[in-house]
Each structure stands twice: as C-alpha cells, then as structure tokens.
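// run 5 | inverse folding | seed 20
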C-alpha cells in the first residue's frame, strides 16, 4: 500500500501519518524527520541544510529525490509506505511517478489536507512551544506557507486530474480524533 499525505505545514499530517502507518504496518516516511536526522550529525551538508530549513525555504529537489528514492527501495518498504511531506514540488511529483512506474508500483491513496492559513498560524505557534522547532517562528511560518502556496499547492490539481480515484480531500480543521475517523473511513480500515 502506498499513500501520500499532502497539505501545508501545521495541517496535522505528521500526527495522522504516524497512526495510520502503524495501523497498516507500513513505513512512515517523513522527509522533514529524515532531514532533521541529517542535521543532528554535524557535516558540511548539515550546515547548509540547517540554514535552508530554519528560514522556511525548501531543500533542493535533487537532495530530496535522492533521499526518497534510496529510502523507498529498501527492503522494509516492500510492504508499503506513507509519504509525509514529499512530494512538495512538481519536479518531485514527476520524479516519484517515474520511480514508482519503473518499479511497477502505484499510489493507492492521496490525501489532501485542506486548512486555512489562519488556523495554520495558530497551530504552528502553539507547536513551537511544545516541540521547540527552530522553523516555527512567525516569519518563518509565513515563508513556509508562501512556499506551500506557490510550489506545493499546484500539485493538488496535478493529482486530482491524474489520480481521479486515488485522490481524496479531508477537512484538516477537524480535531485529531475526528480527522482520524475520517481517514479510517477513506482508507476503509475498520
Ligand atoms: P516538515 O517537517 O515536513 O515541515 O519539513 C521541514 C523542512 O524540511 C521544510 O520546511 C523544508 O525546508 C524541508 N523539507 C522537508 N521535506 C521537503 C521536500 N519534500 N522538499 C523540500 N524541502 C523539504
């Protein structure tokens, strides 16, 4: 089973992704988590990534595509995986499609988390207290939202058209539990 959780920062993708991946016994693949893991080991690359991520910009497609293609071809992904935070650009979406096609794999579900900017701001502000993330201050959040609108949101249209039956929207303003129930319904997990 291959799933994509798609949506802006603060939509609650991570929380739901962890739960659903566990339920389906598939790998939760959060590119943000993988990048933060790289940051924790000091290197020239981690210094570069640190600056990009702390300013709310996107890391280059080349780096992301390499990380994801290496990761999804590992043995533990044979049962399936849930992508959380990838793809975020058209280049990444096209790369992913080609990679899956080459390996005779297909996307089963795309979940588009819909949420307004105001709610995102509120949520991320409160998250910055509990998770202590450097990329959660107000200016950086604004940059991240702008990046989402300009680079990532257009992928909605791409997926809606190309994956008519796999594409689903979900109201991400619902609380964690309601959102979870909606997801279980969409994914037909009983
Ligand atoms: P996240 O935890 O998904 O919000 O990701 C945190 C940061 O990691 C983002 O603001 C980006 O700087 C970087 N990042 C994560 N995933 C991607 C991606 N698919 N493409 C580019 N940058 C990414």
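// decoded
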């Amino acid at each position: 089973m291959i799933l994509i959780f798609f949506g802006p920062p603060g939509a609650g993708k991570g929380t739901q992704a962890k739960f659903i991946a566990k339920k389906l016994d598939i790998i939760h693949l959060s590119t943000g988590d993988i990048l933060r893991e790289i940051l924790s080991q000091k290197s020239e690359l981690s210094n570069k990534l640190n600056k990009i991520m702390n300013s709310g910009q996107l890391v280059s497609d080349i780096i992301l595509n390499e990380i994801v293609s290496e990761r999804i071809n590992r043995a533990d992904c044979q049962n399936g995986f849930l992508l959380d935070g990838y793809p975020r650009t058209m280049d990444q979406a096209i790369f992913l499609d080609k990679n899956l096609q080459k390996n005779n794999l297909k996307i089963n579900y795309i979940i588009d988390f819909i949420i307004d900017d105001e709610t995102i701001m509120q949520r991320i502000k409160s998250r910055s207290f509990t998770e202590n993330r450097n990329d959660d201050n107000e200016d950086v959040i604004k940059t991240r939202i702008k990046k989402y609108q300009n680079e990532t949101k257009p992928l909605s249209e791409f997926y809606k058209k190309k994956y008519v039956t796999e594409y689903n929207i979900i109201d991400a303003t619902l609380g964690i539990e309601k959102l979870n129930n909606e997801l279980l319904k969409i994914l037909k997990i009983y």
